[in-house]
UniProtKB/TrEMBL annotation:
The chain crosses the membrane at residues 431-451. It comes from the Bacteria. InterPro entries: Leu-rich_rpt, LRR_dom_sf. Keywords: Membrane, Transmembrane, Transmembrane helix. This is Uncharacterized protein. It comes from Mariniradius sediminis.
Length: 460
């Protein structure tokens, strides 16, 4: 070959290789599942397990919980978002309206302090360089603003949880002040006022996670204003939302729905994570998840929502699946789930009512890629199947089951390389759940649960 032609050919090969390499680098990195170990708190939960608390099964003191970057974790007195690079193990020490992690001040909750002036004076000389979380009450007083103004330059991006007690119409002014003085990455508002100025939220360019609890009727029946920087959204509402509610926010990648979900979510084609907390009779039958949400990697179903797994066919990216089942029949067939989603990495199974059971639960061991398994409430013999799954990295079983030392020892013997954790149902101290769901809706769900238990079975 002529030297010039050889040089030209080599040049094009190198250029082609460069573009292939560049294209591969531009591909979005998969958000891996990992275990977070927390010491110093008796119960821990997360935004993916709103109805469940996790505990250490023995005296080790470490609670283990599966997480992904972007999740919110919470326990007694703290809520943290997991940023990229969040440590795999933390020692948490809540004390006097503050949270210390590895001896460093990570969080301050002003809503818990009784005498704010005395409290602020007592911590004025603390090191705030590691501060990650603020719990605030609106309206903010001058003392609180002066203190926050003095520390505003000392922190990284920060998570802010707002308890709204504003009766003076100062909510937007306080929010503007925070937006001007802090790099806010997570913003949670427990009670959204009718007058909320969404222009202020749009001005927070660092904002990624927005939590809106108990949104007003005017917003429920309207369209959510455009919030282009928001990738993760949690919503609490007492009524179904307008069909076009999400029309301006098709960029959403995560939705935590603390309301009665309907077909309004069909426009969210970029969704990677969907958590549906409230059972819904408004949802269209035979909803095609793969067509509407082809990028789903994580899906959480409530009870009484599905009769089979056919809705999930075609979700090739699904790695994290959590569902509840109920009733007296053998309606849900695990073999069907294995056939359609053998790629699952995490599976969480719970149920409501008595005499509920899964069909073909022995098929559980056929999930060859499964690494994280969570079983809530009665086991119904599924524990004997689990003991044949030595490839599990993590197993969470009901607290009542693991309290029997014989059960715990049998599991440890069968699965010597598996981290075993205990779980239990939610309690009224689950602060994130109370922030997300309107109290009247939460009361309805609790009443419904107790009604089912009193009957000894779930509703048909």
């Amino acid at each position: 070959m002529h030297p010039k032609r050889l040089l030209s050919t080599s040049f094009y090969v190198i250029v082609l290789f460069y573009f292939v390499l560049a294209a591969s680098c531009l591909e979005k990195r998969e958000n891996p599942i990992r275990l977070l170990a927390i010491q110093g708190d008796s119960e821990v939960s997360s935004s993916k397990f709103l109805w469940r608390n996790f505990k250490a099964p023995d005296s080790t003191g470490f609670v283990h919980i599966p997480v992904q970057d972007g999740d919110l974790i919470f326990g007694d007195g703290f809520i943290f978002s997991l940023w990229e690079g969040f440590p795999d193990s933390i020692i948490v020490d809540p004390q006097d309206s503050m949270v210390f992690v590895h001896g460093e001040l990570w969080g301050i909750d002003f809503s818990e302090s009784q005498n704010r002036s005395i409290f602020l004076d007592s911590i004025r000389d603390f090191d705030f360089n590691h501060l990650r979380n603020l719990g605030l009450v609106f309206p903010m007083d001058t003392t609180q603003k002066n203190f926050l103004g003095n520390i505003k330059g000392n922190q990284h991006q920060i998570d802010i949880v707002i308890t709204n007690k504003d009766t003076l119409g100062l909510f937007n002014e306080d929010l503007k002040w925070l937006a001007a003085n802090f790099q806010i990455s997570t913003l949670i508002i427990d009670q959204v006022p009718d007058s909320l100025d969404f222009h202020v939220i749009r001005s927070i360019k660092t904002l990624d996670f927005l939590g809106l609890g108990n949104i007003p009727i005017s917003l429920q029946t309207g369209i959510l204003p455009q919030l282009p920087q928001i990738k993760s959204l949690s919503l609490g509402a007492e009524e179904p939302l307008n069909f076009d509610f999400f029309y301006n926010n098709k960029q959403l990648e995560r939705l935590i729905a603390g309301y009665v979900v309907g077909a309004e979510i069909h426009v969210l084609k970029n969704l990677k994570e969907l958590s549906i907390i409230v059972p819904s009779e408004y949802f269209p039958p035979y909803y095609d998840f793969a067509k509407r949400h082809p990028n789903l990697e994580s899906l959480d179903f409530p009870s009484n929502w599905i009769s089979d797994f056919s809705h999930l066919k075609g979700l090739e990216k699904l790695k994290w699946f959590s569902f509840q089942y109920s009733g007296d029949s053998l309606g849900l067939d695990l073999e069907e789930l294995v056939e359609t989603h053998p790629q699952l990495k995490l599976l969480s199974i719970s149920h409501e009512g008595f005499r509920s059971r899964l069909a073909n639960q022995s098929a559980l061991r056929n999930f060859s890629q499964l690494e994280y398994l969570l079983i809530q409430k009665e086991t119904f013999g599924i524990d004997s199947v689990i003991m044949q799954m030595p490839h599990l990295k993590y197993l969470s079983m009901p607290e009542d089951y693991l309290e029997d030392s014989l059960n715990l020892e049998a599991m440890k013997k069968a699965l010597p390389n598996t981290i075993i954790s205990a779980n239990s149902g939610f309690c009224l101290g689950s602060g994130w759940l109370l922030l997300l769901l309107p109290l009247s809706l939460l009361a309805f769900l609790i009443q419904r649960l107790f009604f089912q238990v009193s009957l000894g079975k779930s509703e048909p």
